[in-house]
Amino acid sequence: MMRLAFNRTVITISASVAMVFISVMIISGNSYAVTGVLDRSAAKTSNQFCANLATETAKVTEKMTSLSEKLSQAWTTQDTQVASKLKQIDTDVTARREQAETNLNSNFAKLEAKAITDAQKQAVQDYETAIKTAVSIRRAAYDTARQTFRDAVKEQVALRRSIVLGQQDTFKSSVDSAIIAAKATCLDDGTSSTARTTYQTAMKAARDAFQNSRTEDNSIKNRVQEFATTRNSTFESANQAFKASLESAKLTLQQAFGEDKASI
Amino acid sequence: MKIYLGDNRQSGFAIIETVLVIAVIAVVASLAYVYLSQQKPSDSTANQTNNSTSTPIKTTAPAGTTAGITELIIKAAESEAGIDSSADSEIQTEATSANSAITNVGGAYDASSL
Predict the structure, then answer these.
(1) Hey, is the C-beta of B96 within 8 angstroms of any chain A C-beta?
(2) pTM of structure
(3) CB-CB: which of A36, A89, A107 is closest to B72?
């Protein structure tokens, strides 16, 4: 009885582990991992190679087309998500600007209440105009820097895709060549002992060459970081000019208020 | 109360075994949900961000003074720059989001298939 209970527990745990494994495989979307397992059921002997070649190469071609389509979909999704993120930034910036505008107008109203003489009232108006102009210039500089950043990211993504498409074309050409060569060999000798190994070597070389070029895929992260650093530097330069304008406007207003400048 | 001897135990799965399987299914379902949730932008995140942007800017200098106004608009500028900076890592992640799909293209052929 103890032995029976132990076996059932082992079966239960094994089944659970298997379920987790299969689920992770499906969730990860790694089609290579899944199809790789399935494909191992194919014929492996030299004699069967030529007989199964047409079927197997059709599978490879079909799978490649499917994976290329998935890549296109991934890029479309990428575009959508980046656009969504940028739109969210614009929404947040607009909201923050509106909030700052409200706060600024409230401060201006309090400042206007402190002006007694006509000269002081005019000085406050000039001050407000100077501040609004400075804010406007600063925002325009930010907008330009922001757009430059986005254009650079977009350009970098397009460049990366172009490179990947080229690598994919090279991979496909290599695979096509391997298939054509294998078919030619099998046509000459349907029991060729070298056809299979030659084909496998060529296909593996094509895949390895493609995968080796993947080392550059993450370089875009560093490029985006560089663009962000440039944008932030532009922000900082705009801030310096902005602060200088604020200081100048403040001094002009204080001069107009003379001895009453402590109130402002 | 009944006491069962070994020979009288019935076949089938014990409660603990059933519970274990249900627990595993729950964990897998949770993982799948989290994975699928990451495929589209979260509306709730967007709302939180919008709420955070509507918070009034506080200044240490008194309102209605040049010092207060200067502090206010400098903080507004810094706050605005912060929106861009905080989104940088997400944009970096998005820029590489298709990497697995690129890598999978190379898996179109399995060396052991023939």
Answers:
(1) yes
(2) 0.70
(3) A107
Structure confidence by residue, pLDDT tens digits, A114-172: 999 999 999 999 999 999 999 999 999 999 999 999 999 999 999 999 999 999 999 99
Q: Does the CB of B92 have a partner CB in chain A at under 8 Å? A: yes
Is the pLDDT higher at A38 or at A85?
A85
A99 vs B contacts (CB less than 8 Å): 53-57, 76
- Is A43 in Cβ contact with B65 (below 8 Å)? no
Q: Packing angle between helix B43-53 and helix A46-114, nearest 10 degrees?
A: 20
Q: What is the pLDDT of residues B44-94, one digit of tens each?
A: 333 333 444 556 778 899 999 999 999 999 999 999 999 999 999 999 999
Question: For chain B, which residues make up each domain, given as ranges?
Answer: 11-43+54-94
CB contact under 8 A, B77 and A171: no
A209: nearest CA partner in chain B: B106
Which sequence spans correspond to the domains of chain A?
1-41, 47-263
Question: Between B109 and A48, where is the model more confident?
Answer: A48
